[in-house]
Amino acid sequence: MTDYLESAPRMRLGTFLGVPQATSASAGQIAVIGLPFDCGTHATRIGSRQGPAAFRAMSSEVRPFYPPLADVDPRAGGRVVDLGDVDVVASDLGPSLAAMEAAIHEVVKADAVPLCVGGDGTVTLPVLRALAKRYPELVLIHIDAHTDAYPGEDVNTGTTFTRAAQEGLIDTRRSFHIGARGTMLVAGAYDHTRALGYRLIPGEEVRKRGPEAIAAEVREVVGTRPVHLSFDMDYFDPSAAPGVATPTWGGPPVAEVFDLLHGLKGLDLVGVDINTLSPPHDVQGMSAMLAGHVAVIALHLIQLGQAEHRLNAGHR
Amino acid sequence: MTDYLESAPRMRLGTFLGVPQATSASAGQIAVIGLPFDCGTHATRIGSRQGPAAFRAMSSEVRPFYPPLADVDPRAGGRVVDLGDVDVVASDLGPSLAAMEAAIHEVVKADAVPLCVGGDGTVTLPVLRALAKRYPELVLIHIDAHTDAYPGEDVNTGTTFTRAAQEGLIDTRRSFHIGARGTMLVAGAYDHTRALGYRLIPGEEVRKRGPEAIAAEVREVVGTRPVHLSFDMDYFDPSAAPGVATPTWGGPPVAEVFDLLHGLKGLDLVGVDINTLSPPHDVQGMSAMLAGHVAVIALHLIQLGQAEHRLNAGHR
Amino acid sequence: MTDYLESAPRMRLGTFLGVPQATSASAGQIAVIGLPFDCGTHATRIGSRQGPAAFRAMSSEVRPFYPPLADVDPRAGGRVVDLGDVDVVASDLGPSLAAMEAAIHEVVKADAVPLCVGGDGTVTLPVLRALAKRYPELVLIHIDAHTDAYPGEDVNTGTTFTRAAQEGLIDTRRSFHIGARGTMLVAGAYDHTRALGYRLIPGEEVRKRGPEAIAAEVREVVGTRPVHLSFDMDYFDPSAAPGVATPTWGGPPVAEVFDLLHGLKGLDLVGVDINTLSPPHDVQGMSAMLAGHVAVIALHLIQLGQAEHRLNAGHR
Amino acid sequence: MTDYLESAPRMRLGTFLGVPQATSASAGQIAVIGLPFDCGTHATRIGSRQGPAAFRAMSSEVRPFYPPLADVDPRAGGRVVDLGDVDVVASDLGPSLAAMEAAIHEVVKADAVPLCVGGDGTVTLPVLRALAKRYPELVLIHIDAHTDAYPGEDVNTGTTFTRAAQEGLIDTRRSFHIGARGTMLVAGAYDHTRALGYRLIPGEEVRKRGPEAIAAEVREVVGTRPVHLSFDMDYFDPSAAPGVATPTWGGPPVAEVFDLLHGLKGLDLVGVDINTLSPPHDVQGMSAMLAGHVAVIALHLIQLGQAEHRLNAGHR
Amino acid sequence: MTDYLESAPRMRLGTFLGVPQATSASAGQIAVIGLPFDCGTHATRIGSRQGPAAFRAMSSEVRPFYPPLADVDPRAGGRVVDLGDVDVVASDLGPSLAAMEAAIHEVVKADAVPLCVGGDGTVTLPVLRALAKRYPELVLIHIDAHTDAYPGEDVNTGTTFTRAAQEGLIDTRRSFHIGARGTMLVAGAYDHTRALGYRLIPGEEVRKRGPEAIAAEVREVVGTRPVHLSFDMDYFDPSAAPGVATPTWGGPPVAEVFDLLHGLKGLDLVGVDINTLSPPHDVQGMSAMLAGHVAVIALHLIQLGQAEHRLNAGHR
Amino acid sequence: MTDYLESAPRMRLGTFLGVPQATSASAGQIAVIGLPFDCGTHATRIGSRQGPAAFRAMSSEVRPFYPPLADVDPRAGGRVVDLGDVDVVASDLGPSLAAMEAAIHEVVKADAVPLCVGGDGTVTLPVLRALAKRYPELVLIHIDAHTDAYPGEDVNTGTTFTRAAQEGLIDTRRSFHIGARGTMLVAGAYDHTRALGYRLIPGEEVRKRGPEAIAAEVREVVGTRPVHLSFDMDYFDPSAAPGVATPTWGGPPVAEVFDLLHGLKGLDLVGVDINTLSPPHDVQGMSAMLAGHVAVIALHLIQLGQAEHRLNAGHR
């Protein structure tokens, strides 16, 4: 405990994990960015615009070292910075998507990795648009209790990946939707997702085969391609993460969610978003704290991937 | 207690105060209508789309007889019906405003009185549009910790009454904003409200002169004109009503809010809306229950006004 | 999403899943009925009288299509109606039991299936009394952390199935108590249950054999007999469902509870009750929402059973 | 702080204010007694059976010295003991009323003063029955947002003082109901209370005349007669005490409630009950803590009355 | 609204009111500083170490313009900065007091004004120690439900102002304790406070004379001397601010607390602390939001005082 | 149910499970003792000083009979007493440790078994010091998401077992730390624990091998030696026990925690502590209730061990 305390800044502020605040990121850095937009939410439980603030606040309860992946501090050497929140306009979809895309693109152009915190599931679309400009072979791993690839012409939380497929932002044949489960508003949700070219692994299949097997399949298909990981907090069971827009009962135990994420070790993560954290529906900030744990895992995964793919050479 | 229980329907459902569900209202009736729209909220605490549901649910804790105004049951003779919620589209302002206006207009055309429950402060605009078609001399009484008459070209919770004035929906010189107080996002908020022609009585003035004096002034100015009462739940102090979008400290004790409302007795209320109830930010449903109490007062005020103005003849 | 929204009524009210309100049900329909009685609760945490209201309110977060059983809308064709709550008298057991039995019997007589929501565990008794008149071969599947078959002459939440056995309402030798676990107020609780003729499968056995094996045994024993499913919300672990009268730690993960229920597919369910939801002890309405998920499963199970047993002919 | 800590027992348990646990009380002592019965509650929010436990637990946040009345420790000399809870039977009114009456009567017989904590408003009836045997001239001061003197033959929270009047337990012409306000379930509630002989001072009158004037009137009418003070926690505004069965908006500020109670100084209090604390509907235990403050005031009022009436001689 | 949004930084972080983060302050600036120390709390409800974080987080709900004092933005011209939290050591009083004093002294030396947020009531001691070095004529205005000037040799929340008097940090004869009320742990608390030379105005006196009269007396006595304002959040009634260490019922309405503070306009405030905000005991962050409102008032009071005393010349 | 109710005392107070209050314990008895000290907590979420009170209060929801271990009442024959809380001094580590050690030692000397409830993780140190005087061969089983055996010279929650090892209180080579997992503040935490001689079984290993296998290994190593069981509530996943100081995601399902504890059957438990229950961070008292369940398991384990080791003779 001593070491950390001694090396800590004498005065602290509310960035994620106390990392330095910055206005831009440089090559190799990980840039935490808040995307406080939730007006793509047509469901009852809107409120994820408060997600980034809660995420940062509860990161006081999360620690940086993580033996299951790496017993090191991912913040070492100033490798993580916090860029604050993108200034979106509530209810005004167009300008908000543009502002988010522009902010992420600045990060991506600098060869830094954006670690985005939503906001609802629409925020993933501008992230993918920004990444796609830089990584033409981009692959998606989407972990969520819903596929968010429903039919429809709108941009909302249910059509993010319909749009992404139609805009050609990602290689859908090598992209995964993992964990769909539960009750649905429409019939044929899974079929439409597959019709767009995606690989769909429902939650039930994850339970049967186990998270390690799923992760192995993902690694096999994805290979060395650049990957964006989109993690919807409602993949957790509501007993663990009540503070989401669409709680969906029957999710895996938290430890198995971590197993699945651990299994992505070695992939070349060029972007991550954690979305749908809805603080007004949370209980004692626990879902926000859990999102922080996911973010620590992401920090380690990104850095382990960077180590691997730097050695494997300049494939980009 | 006996009487009420005996006359109650054997099976009950979740309408406001257990009144009958209906699809339309007839002359003289009061029609409860939910307006679950909140995407005019640019502030942090969005969520009033859940307002109508919470309002109906907590009405189980509110009773109909009200000695301070009338020791009678306002539901008697089927005079109150519940029309359910208007089917708005989240984040899509135009169609939502149109749908709300159309639904309210049906009620107004039938000479029934809409008792609307928001939703955020934008929902008052379609209500006024609907009423203005029927009542050219319409007057507004707006009770709120904010004037919602800020500069700007947008339709959002801050510009409802800027729009209403510019569209000529109401007689601004006889219309009141009562209760503005607290911290503000911009300078000159009060001046702009007055520049639109409105009468502004800040909360501080209410405290000094007392609610009875304020109500007397209002009655004097309004006279026999048709009135819409728009009540924002944040007029209450946050100690009483935490479940609102913009809690504003320093409000009056609840009993004095009731005094102010009681003082409107005799006015010809042709419309009422209660807005900005934000259930995800509420505590134990208490703000929703308080909104129900305001609605019971409104039921009595409307009926007392109807009794008076029916005797006073067909001024419409 | 489009389809559902388009076909939805323009105005909505607080019935379960938005189904039509009705005053009676016809053959083949499923009738949702609230039984807001909790004065059989001798334990500390009384409050399940608020269960039906919370259940309906939180059904806004549950969807109708359910791929694990059937990717169809069980409400299609008006097959589900909501009859509201039976008008019980708090603390007056006799008249309340009678009122509940009469209301359920009307439904049963019409060859509709009651889907009852409590209320505490005593509400199952009048449901069984009503069903027994119509189905002499009635079998019970009781899923609960307690057997509620304790010794005693009283009618309370602990003696419901002692009474049911002694009154001969069900075929105890083919009836199951599944899931008893945890700490107990008295010794010999399991022995007494078995002495009444019931089959008892403690929670520990469910964990060891797995829910699929248990369900297979149940299907084997029950066969084509008419079944009442009584589901106590405290079967869930308190981490998932804190809002119950007697939280009992050590329950199965939610997904395994669903597995168990899925395994009842094909049985001829002629009645269902979901009880012991105690909203004042709930957290953010999550237990109520979970009860809604159980109800959606029940809707599908009932309809799948109807399809099967209609084909198999008029065995009643 | 030192003094108290030094004189405190080395080990502490959960009695009210840490007073000694006892099984009986002796002359002049004040006996704290829990009455965990709430099945006289016909309203939605049952749960005051948990009141005594919460009351004791939150007394850790209340202190004994009270400058507005007496800057002394009322516990000094072992003058306060805690007898624990009476063992009532949930839902079984008759035996429960008998058990409560018997337990209180033991205390009263010993010339000790019962300080009872409910439980719902029915618990006042057995307290009055026990006191009436000892004090034929008993007078009631009932402070409550409701008169609980409604018509009806039942024993429930709404008829306690109808029963008390009809059984002749108190001198109704010198007994007060102070503070009725708000919405009502039936018409004529005030008239019926007065028809029973009671003095009724509605909350509105308290607001206009002020608590000091009301207290003066009470002292004038009551004189040296033995008094039972029944305090319903819903007399507080729900902003202060949400944890009650029937929250009733428009109550006085807490400081004015204290003023009213302080004004009872000098009366000969022979019994006190504080009822209707409903912990499952409370927020952070604040209503329970407030009940503890009322109890400290009661301790001082009782002892100040004892001092006065001991000097004034053996009027009993 | 437009102006503010346009001038806002494109990306935001969690400082108080979004002001710039800084590591030091310059002359005339106001420096927000968190003092997350709470181990001077001997009472049950420890937790104010989480105060600064909650204070900053909830400042998203507070606005800068404040018509009752000044319709200007106090942040204009970079006049407010946020220095983050002092790095204290939990449970180690000595080093923590030293670290806080050193950090504040740096600010004071630079002729900036510290606006400190606790932490419990012990944090005021190091603030006074730092200020006393710079302002030999320092006067204290302490607004609190307790005097915190109890006997004892310890440094804890109850002896802060005993220590301050004995160390000669302030001119006690011109220093005020305003608002003591409620139940107490020891006898003679008020006498000891006065024996130290302080002026004591109990809460009861504030209620009778009114906040304006009290403020006038304070201004009269204090004159042009440099003032430290220490504001304990428990001065608010617990109905408004439950999230404190020692909730004390019977406080003034929030509007009257603001009146008292407004009355300090014109004083030369050289330091402010807001303490005893205990987030784990708060409800929906409302107490933290209220602390933010007090801080906005303080920002305006400081700047109005600076304007006045700069004109009145270089008395320092 | 009848039996228990009939044999219950007529009046009850807030001891654990309603056992008798006592001031000392005799041979063979189990003595419940509260250790309300939390100033060894350097993390954000202090508050476990409120643990013992919440633990006792929520024991109303836990029952004594426990079929998985023994279908008997462990309270029978007065074998369990509640000694209340040790009177510690907040923030003053030295005297508090001494007071706790002295109180426990009295119990141990009398050949009773202390069942201690914290308080934070520092309270285990005085318990071990007291036990070590009586049991030179003492062995520790520490079940916790952290090893609390970090480097450092301080006494705080992170160094309890570093101190215990260095003071030679326990046989570290036969002592276990079970369940460490999650994110960490420093590197090398596991190595340091092992360097002190302890056996470390990380949570991941428990998941892989299963709780039965782990328990078997423990029994094998420990044999007939006297054992202290220290159970940190954060071993549970935060979805089950949010009310702890350092919630650590990824814990086992509650049922598997019970399996692990059941596996300790037969060991000679001479002391137990349950620590780190932090009520202000709890949700609806559920973590406190879960601690009560652990305590019931402990009561049975202790008595089963006593039965076994009394038969096996006087090895002490």
UniProtKB/TrEMBL annotation, chains A, B, C, D, E, F:
Keywords of the record: Hydrolase, Metal-binding
Presence of keyword Transcription: no
GO molecular function, one term: metal ion binding
InterPro entries the UniProt entry points to: Ureohydrolase, Ureohydrolase_dom_sf, Ureohydrolase_Mn_BS
Keyword Transport: no
GO biological process terms on file: putrescine biosynthetic process from arginine, via agmatine
Matching Pfam families: Arginase
Stated family: Belongs to the arginase family. Agmatinase subfamily.
Protein name: Agmatinase
Lineage, uppermost ranks: Bacteria, Pseudomonadati, Pseudomonadota, Alphaproteobacteria, Hyphomicrobiales
